[in-house]
Design a protein that fits this description.
The chain has helices at residues 3-17, 24-54, 56-60, 75-84, 131-135, 148-154, 196-202, 225-235, 251-289, 291-299, 304-341, 355-377, 402-421, 426-456, 463-473, 479-510, and strands at 64-69, 86-99, 105-113, 124-126, 137-138, 141-146, 161-164, 167-177, 191-195, 211-218, 242-245. With 531 residues, the chain is of the alpha+beta class. The chain folds into three domains: 1-57 and 256-390 and 399-424, no CATH class; 62-248, no CATH class; 425-510, no CATH class. Strands 2-3-9-6-8-7 form a six-stranded mixed barrel.
Length: 531
């Protein structure tokens, strides 16, 4: 098609659209819902990942961290760390906190910090005060900043005292925000922050104690944390410490976000594919309703290629409108989610427009639209000019032009490649594509089987049943499309129910019939007799 014909097609499409959008509202809704889901999930994931990168030093607690289990750093090791930059020493372990009467106890995550903590970020306490003021010694007691959950568990209020080991600590503040909380890994109890001197007074540090020492550094400007980590490993190859830089501040949180983004994106793509069936049905119905207009254009000498281009331009115009609307909704998802996730995520969501996820969602929407609309648009070629003067029934087998068939195949392959290539886990993306293709093929065959079965049942004596069966296999009957739409939609619902049921069953099956009510950690050999 030359430039003149293309401009003519656009002009005719514009005139056609001035008469109303007809049945394209469903088409528009299907595109908006699917693309908005993908764009929203991608934008939210990108905003959280951006927050992780910006807050990486806060999450780790430094530019780099050297972690030792069960032993503190030796003299030479500590000297090397102290010479590298500003150093903060932290000790973490699990312990039991008990009330003064000893009648109530709770497992806690104990964290002993020095005066330099935190190197990055701020520990927010309630009532508002500095961490040093909350945990220093006043009179006979060291202080402690605690997770609010421990107050409820032990039935205490701020100002009361608890016993941790041999030390008596006064509860002076609750922890509102702990910047490096996500770097600690799995926790079994509420957090209690004390001073290093209070930990020494508790008597919990003894040979065999399950304590982890964290040495965090604020490196001078110009020193690359990765290069420093290599020097530390080379200088002390037998130290046995684990060294992380701020680029690896919270790998578990990063993996969680990546997996959630992957699966939610696949859910959004599933919704878009299910909507694709609705897109195809809506376009087919729209073209069927334009039979008289198509016949008129052909009577006036318009070739089939020009008529096809007119309606292709109309469909693409509405597709772009739906995609742009969906991208606007998707870009707003982080803004709407920010207040809901502020107290759940250890990082702040970085608001902004992220072109990558939006472009990916737009490409998914465009490819899906093309895959599901070219086939029904091919029906324009089967509308004769004589349809303007008499109603016709298309009894011939519907043959799709080779060009449309080839284009649909290429676009389908492109959509599958995009789904696999954009997935963080290519294997999951591949199985998703295989499952989607298998489901579409299965329900398409099921629709053909329903039509064949209705045709072979003959002519029942009851008129209502005879008419019902005839409507299932008559020319132009939407039986196959209905079976495909219902089948794909129910497949999604069943898949969600099965995943939920399997997860619940997995938890139930892994729990023993008789599980202990309590478990104890860090029992010393001289304490075994008491158990």
């Amino acid at each position: 098609m030359n430039a003149f014909s293309a401009a003519h097609a656009v002009r005719l499409a514009h005139r056609e659209l001035r008469g109303g959008i007809g049945g394209l509202r469903v088409f528009l809704a299907c595109i908006v819902l699917g693309v908005a889901a993908i764009a929203g999930v991608g934008s939210l994931g990108a905003s959280v990942v951006a927050g992780i990168k910006v807050d990486a030093r806060d999450l780790l607690g430094g530019d780099a961290e050297a972690r030792l289990a069960y032993r503190p750093a030796g003299t030479a090791e500590r000297a090397f760390l102290a010479q590298s930059g500003r150093l903060s020493e932290i000790a973490t372990m699990r312990a039991m906190a008990r009330t003064q009467g000893g009648n109530r106890r709770s497992l806690i995550e104990l964290k002993a910090v020095d005066a330099a903590y935190p190197l990055y970020g701020v520990v927010a306490l309630a009532p508002e005060q500095s961490l040093g003021a909350a945990i220093d010694r006043r009179g006979d007691y060291f202080g402690a900043a605690v997770d609010p959950a421990i107050l409820e568990r032990l039935g205490l209020v701020l100002g009361d005292t608890v016993k941790i080991g041999e030390a008596t600590l006064q509860l002076r503040a609750t922890i509102e925000r702990e910047p490096d909380a996500a770097a600690g890994g799995l926790e079994f109890g509420p957090r209690v922050i004390v001073s290093a001197e209070a930990l020494a007074e508790s008597g919990l540090i003894r040979p065999g104690a399950l304590v982890t020492y964290h040495y965090r550094l604020q490196l001078p400007g110009g020193i690359d944390p990765g290069s420093w980590a290599e020097r530390a490993r080379s200088a002390f190859p037998a130290a046995g410490w684990q060294i992380r830089t701020f680029g690896e501040a919270s790998p578990s949180l990063q993996r969680l976000i990546d997996r959630l983004t992957l699966f939610l994106t696949l859910v959004g793509l599933t919704a878009l594919l299910v909507g694709g069936v609705g897109i195809g049905n809506a376009v087919g119905g729209y073209i069927a309703g334009k039979t008289a207009t198509i016949a008129t254009l052909k009577c006036l000498g318009a070739p089939t290629r020009l008529v096809f281009a007119v309606y292709f331009v109309e469909i693409m115009a509405f597709a772009l409108l739906g995609i742009c609307t969906a991208l606007a909704f998707g870009a707003l998802v982080p803004v709407v989610s920010m207040p809901l996730l502020a107290h759940v995520l250890p990082v702040s969501i970085r608001l902004g427009v992220y072109p990558g996820p939006l472009a990916l969602a737009a490409l998914f929407g465009l490819l899906t639209t093309l895959v599901f609309t070219l086939w029904p648009l091919a029906g324009i070629g089967r509308v004769p000019a004589g349809a303007l003067f008499r109603d016709t029934v298309d009894r011939a087998r519907r043959r799709v032009p080779p060009t449309v068939l080839g284009a649909t195949g290429v676009l389908t392959f492109g959509l599958a490649a995009l789904a696999i290539g954009s997935a963080q886990d290519r294997t999951v993306g591949l199985w998703f594509v295989v499952g989607a293709v298998g489901a579409f093929a299965l329900f398409r065959l099921a629709g053909a089987a329903v039509i064949h079965g209705a045709r072979t049942l003959g002519r029942p004596h009851r008129p209502a049943l005879r008419l019902a069966l005839a409507n299932l296999h008559r020319p132009g009957a939407p039986t196959a499309q209905i079976v495909l739409s219902l089948g794909i939609g129910l497949t999604v619902l069943v898949a969600i129910a099965l995943v939920e049921g399997n997860l619940a069953r997995e938890v139930e099956n892994r729990l023993p019939a008789e599980a202990p009510a309590f478990f104890f950690i860090d029992i010393q050999p001289d304490q075994l007799a008491g158990f």
